[in-house]
Amino acid sequence: MDNQTAIIIPARYESSRLRGKPLIEVGGKPIIQWVFEKAVKAQLADRVIIATDNEQIYETSLMFGAEAEMTLDTHNSGSDRIAEVAERHPEIGYIINLQGDEPLINPDTIDIVIKLLKEDSDADISTLVHEITDEKDIMDSNLVKCVFDNNGYAMYFSRSKIPFERNAGHAKFYGHLGIYGYKRDALFKMTGANQTSLELTESLEQLRALQMGMKIKVSVVEDSPIGIDTIEDLNNFKNRIMASQL
After folding, report:
1. Residue-averaged pLDDT of the chain
2. Residue 196 DSSP one-character state
């Protein structure tokens, strides 16, 4: 089947803050399995592929029934990793980059990303944000913030508080969810380019696309799933799973 929609989950072992993160077990199964099981429930995706540079993650993925592929270990970002897999599959026309550390992502949320991408002919990329009101979250550099225009296209992403409140009371703040949709050509255009100054400064790959003039369509959702970047995030996830199993 041509023009498939594939969710590709990049999963690497050498995370700077939580080494071996995809294989950490919570509630009896590894984090990468939690993510995969949510991804396969998305209605608008034709297939789900785990892309990894680690044999143990690859073997574990096969054991719980996932389609998985090995990639190079030299990629700078998750999008570079998924591009390697997408290049092997000319039948895939829409690629969803679902981070391997988003175990509580809602399958309906994934479908929104796919729908955004397919219904907007001007969009190269699609992604999601949720409103944040807690000042701690707004100031947290691990939570990426986004500002977007009146047509729903991203203007900028930052680890800093954006917009800066010179005059308080006017702004809403939005946190970015770790999921992207790419049209095939857009993915290769972005990953084929050098990292840009803004991307290197903030360590945010989506800034490469913006700096290149690509259009990122943004939708606001209610969901705010826990992305696991730190020990605190991991403990929060464990607590949620334990509470749900009581």
Report:
1. 93
2. P
Which residues on adjacent β-strands are paired with residue 156?
Answer: 147
**Percentage with pLDDT > 90 across the chain:** 79
If you count them, how many residues does the chain have?
246
pLDDT in tens, 49-58: 999 999 999 9
CA dihedral of 193, 197, 198, 200, whole degrees rounded to 10: 90
Radius of gyration for the alpha carbons in the chain, expressed in angstroms and rounded: 17
Q: Are 96 and 7 in contact (CB under 8 A)?
A: yes
Domain that holds residue 22: 4-229
- Helix, coil or strand: residue 210: helix
Domain assignment of residue 154, yes or no: yes
State phi, psi for 2 to the nearest 5 degrees: -80, 160
Residue 116 lies in a domain: yes
Q: Is pTM beyond 0.90 here?
A: yes
Distance separating alpha carbons of residues 160 and 202, to the nearest angstrom: 9
